[in-house]
Amino acid sequence: MSDAYAVRRERLREHCSASGFDAALITRSANVRYLTGCPPCGASLLLTRERVLLALPDDLPPDDTGQHALGEDIPRLAVPRETDTALAAAEAAGRLRVRDVGVEEHDLTVSRHRCVTELLSDARLTDLSRAVERLRVVKDEHELADLRIAAEIADQALGELLESILVGRTERHLAMELERRMIDHGADRAAFPVSVGTGTHSGMEGHQPTDRRVEEGDFLTVVLGAQYRGYGVSTARTFVIGAAPAPWQVELHRLVFRAQRAGREALGPGVPQNAPDQAAREILQGAGHTEHSPRPVGHGIGLEIREAPRLGPTDMGKLDNRVPVTVGPGVHIPGKGGVRIEDTLVVRPLEEGGPELLTITTKELLAL
Amino acid sequence: MSDAYAVRRERLREHCSASGFDAALITRSANVRYLTGCPPCGASLLLTRERVLLALPDDLPPDDTGQHALGEDIPRLAVPRETDTALAAAEAAGRLRVRDVGVEEHDLTVSRHRCVTELLSDARLTDLSRAVERLRVVKDEHELADLRIAAEIADQALGELLESILVGRTERHLAMELERRMIDHGADRAAFPVSVGTGTHSGMEGHQPTDRRVEEGDFLTVVLGAQYRGYGVSTARTFVIGAAPAPWQVELHRLVFRAQRAGREALGPGVPQNAPDQAAREILQGAGHTEHSPRPVGHGIGLEIREAPRLGPTDMGKLDNRVPVTVGPGVHIPGKGGVRIEDTLVVRPLEEGGPELLTITTKELLAL
After folding, report:
1. What is the pLDDT of residues A118-162, one digit of tens each?
2. Domains in chain A: boundaries
3. Subunit contact A205:B59, Cβ cutoff 8 A
4. Which position among B14, B35, B206, B208 has the lowest Cβ density within 10 Å, counted as fewest Cβ atoms?
5. CB contact under 8 A, A110 and B111
């Protein structure tokens, strides 16, 4: 595995070389993790043509939990907790007399950037323009393996919940139980706060669980994701509580199901990024549903829960092979409720069977 | 309560006026919340001499949970989720023809700052130098009331846990149970991930709970805090499992207890910020315990779990009245375990009874 990190760093070196940088200072935690395996802890990475140095706080817990296991091949610089690791790495860069340094201007605050500039007064600082984020788009087999495990954990937690009694329990409790179950099944943590929305809250984007209790006849929307070794997935399902869904519930669920399927089926290498969104949106709009602000139907997912590529209506790039993305349209009718269905899938060519579905919990309208 | 926000904004206006700014663009979420009551949601605040404008995402959940309740007196600008609210606020500032704008350079990334600069090409942008953070140091009665409730919630959750069977349970499960109990008692959430360390993990700073199970004879260190209406507290306690603590455990607990008490007793208005640290450190060092890197014994606490003032060995300012701080020394003996004891207290003059202790769970060495 430490080889995989070395390969990634070599690709960044090639990018730096081509862009005229003799060093890169990486501060964004997902990028540091991608290049070293180091979990988020405020570490910074200095990469020059010949060297690599990981500056990290000196008081990290020992490795007995495995959570801070690092490739032993990376030279480390232990920095007192009160000191910014980016500044420690910049100081080291200064001693190496680097001249052109790529920095992450979308991550460094103006204050930190100023301090780095002062420490490297003989060098020129230039934005790396999300170079590491671009390297991260297409996943290697280590990453896909972690994503598969994360998806399996979320599926297990959701499956167990569906077997329990739901009526009378609050959104908050159901959300907490799902988070606990994911950790029990080996997740680092929930990839994001679990959202549970019942009744009028169902189908809402970004709903924060409340003390509303599940009632007979409710729609119940669950949005959850596990994080495993830093890699997260996201899945949304909507169920109905009680034996007999109302006709409007059956109809709305069928509509969102169709839209989500159309979005999934539009995925493929070489396909425009906005194709899945268009496919899903056409179906929802055809039935008269337009969301207040047009949200992208999905996005890339990996070390960050929202990363490149974005699958929005105006995103014009092309999808690549081996890119994990979410596809998750939804409809919410104020005062009534709604449906949201989301999967995490990996873009694959048709010859390999098309998109690889990671989140396999059924999308049928289960009556619980 | 909306009056309190208006008073705070007026104080910031006075600061701006004195510093020659005709507008302030506030992006740091704790600062936006302090000035408007708006919980963290990516909102930005524009404050000019006569106006106030809160730019916030247009898809926030409705107010039925109370979590997004805002003072109705603040004009709002709904911004599509895909747009940066700081840029929307900057555009609005441009239309108002502001000339000197204070911005938060410790919060804005270089990229965002550049976009703001482009939108306000006729204005001069200058760092606010943490002006809002400085306003936030001394708390008003609304804030102290919320902190008291947060502390009460954490005490309740911890008290309940102490009544249950602990032997055989994992650190992870105990931590999750404490988080659940705090939410049950009305917390917004845990103020930070609860830390539970048992046996060799006890007394460690920043320990992440593992699957280690509580055993007879262990030290058990719990570090927890509730967040209530945005305000957090922090408390740490160390107990021993089983009927008879070993002599070294009794001795080490007594030592940290004494150091923590000395730190607490050193608090007072007008006292140097480093006095509590010195008082606690002297006792620990007198017994031969020196931590690897000298961590401050405490820090301010409120809308952020670590905020000004810092109570470190080299911090030379003076403490003010009505400033909530933590005091939490600890000793960890590698391979053996340790003790950490922390309280959240409000600095008060002796005439008013001295420091107000918020986290009242006993600090005695309970044998559980």
Report:
1. 999 999 999 999 999 999 999 999 999 999 999 999 999 999 999
2. 2-136, 141-357
3. yes
4. B14
5. no
